Amino acid sequence: MLRLNGKAVRHHFDGVHGKVVQMRELIDVLDNMFDSFYKVNKISKSMLGQVKQERKDLDRFS
After folding, report:
1. What is the pTM of this model?
2. What is the average pLDDT across 33-49?
3. Which terminal Cβ of the chain has fewer Cβ within 10 Å, N or C?
């Protein structure tokens, strides 16, 4: 039969708490990474939109 003492229980929950903290940090990093991808995508689309508009303007004059 398994005997539980206070030290073992505390050690177990400290380990679980540590893993929860690590998962929160990982989720925060992933969230920041995807926010960065979204911002870069938005910037690149706006830049490409300007290039396409400039090409249309140039084609109209030639």
Report:
1. 0.58
2. 88
3. N
